């Protein structure tokens, strides 16, 4: 995934085929060189999404696309976080498809400004950073439309980057969020709970409730255009009482995402941390079916053992 996944999709969308060594030493090839290929099961996407649990990729055949000729950047400044969520849906239903819609909440804005001043509005509850790309004239028209939509949707300000230096400054500020927030506290728990775009305002409300309920430092930023939020909790792993509250908060974040029709992970994957929550999203039968696929491909469980699938009784443990 990544910030341009909104318009261009994610890595799996560009993998046409693979060469794989199976856990039992067999060489197989999936897919091929064609954009369309519906011969048999889609093993390419199965392997791409398997987190190293089904085989070793030795070759990948990728689809490439040309770089767009023009890009423009505009920032919307909001005094209400949920208004920024509603603005995302309105922009996307207007017929405009930005290459990026990134969100920073007030906590992340303040953290960045304290870390490296970047001309961000620290009194705002949220900012939306939007990149538009394509033919120069079309992009110019879309920037004006987004500016008008911002004004209609409660943004107190719309800043259009007029120079390359201004564009660079805006996107650099977004990239500074992760290093900036660990200055608050040394431990960062990074999640990527993802919800349907229509549920972004509701997810913001749930995150606010969770922050207050557990008295935690919860920072929200991420690829909001496709609902892929990054609620990060900054804490101190040496403080066991705080870490227990964080564990409970993380569990509620996952529950909230699923209750709103979303998923545990839009980008980061499952690994071990999210494994205890897999059944919550997939159901007993769905999870069992995945385990049977794993057993068929890797009967000796030698490929990335202990990942993705929870052990009996496994719970989230951060300390």
UniProtKB/TrEMBL annotation:
Record carries keyword Iron: no
A GO molecular-function annotation: FAD binding
PANTHER family in alphabetical order: GLYCOLATE OXIDASE SUBUNIT GLCD
Cofactor requirements of the protein: FAD
Residues in FAD-binding PCMH-type domain copies: 1-67
Keyword annotations: FAD, Flavoprotein, Oxidoreductase
Protein name, UniProt field: Glycolate oxidase subunit GlcD
Transmembrane segments: none
Family classification: Belongs to the FAD-binding oxidoreductase/transferase type 4 family.
Entry-linked SUPFAM superfamilies: FAD-binding/transporter-associated domain-like, FAD-linked oxidases, C-terminal domain
KW Glycosyltransferase (keyword) present: no
Domain of life where this protein originates: Bacteria
């Amino acid at each position: 995934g990544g910030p341009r996944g909104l318009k261009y999709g994610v890595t799996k969308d560009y993998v046409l085929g693979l060469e794989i060594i199976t856990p039992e030493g067999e060489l197989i090839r999936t897919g091929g060189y064609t954009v369309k290929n519906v011969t048999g099961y889609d093993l390419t996407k199965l392997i791409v999404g398997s987190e190293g649990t089904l085989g070793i990729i030795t070759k990948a055949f990728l689809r490439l696309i040309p770089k767009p000729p023009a890009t423009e950047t505009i920032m919307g400044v909001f005094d209400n976080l949920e208004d920024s969520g509603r603005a995302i849906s309105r922009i996307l239903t207007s017929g405009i498809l930005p290459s990026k819609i990134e969100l920073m909440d007030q906590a992340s804005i303040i953290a960045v400004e304290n870390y490296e001043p970047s001309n961000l509005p620290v009194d705002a509850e949220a900012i939306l950073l939007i990149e538009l790309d394509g033919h120069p004239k079309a992009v110019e028209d879309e920037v004006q439309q987004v500016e008008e939509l911002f004004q209609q949707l409660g943004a107190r300000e719309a800043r259009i980057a007029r120079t390359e230096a201004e564009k660079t400054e805006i996107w650099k500020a977004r990239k500074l969020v992760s290093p900036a927030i660990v200055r608050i506290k040394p431990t960062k728990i990074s999640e990527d709970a993802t919800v349907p775009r229509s549920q972004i305002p509701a997810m913001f409300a749930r995150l606010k409730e969770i922050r207050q309920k557990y008295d935690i430092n919860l920072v929200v930023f991420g690829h909001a255009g496709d609902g892929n939020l990054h609620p990060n909790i900054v804490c101190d792993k040496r403080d066991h009482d705080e870490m227990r509250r964080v564990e409970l908060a993380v569990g509620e974040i996952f529950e909230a995402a699923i209750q709103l029709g979303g998923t545990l992970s839009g980008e980061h994957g499952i690994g071990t941390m999210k494994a205890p929550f897999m059944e919550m999203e997939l159901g007993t039968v769905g999870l069992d079916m995945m385990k049977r696929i794993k057993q068929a491909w890797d009967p000796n469980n030698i490929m990335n053992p202990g990942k993705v699938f929870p052990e009996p009784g496994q719970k989230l443990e951060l300390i």
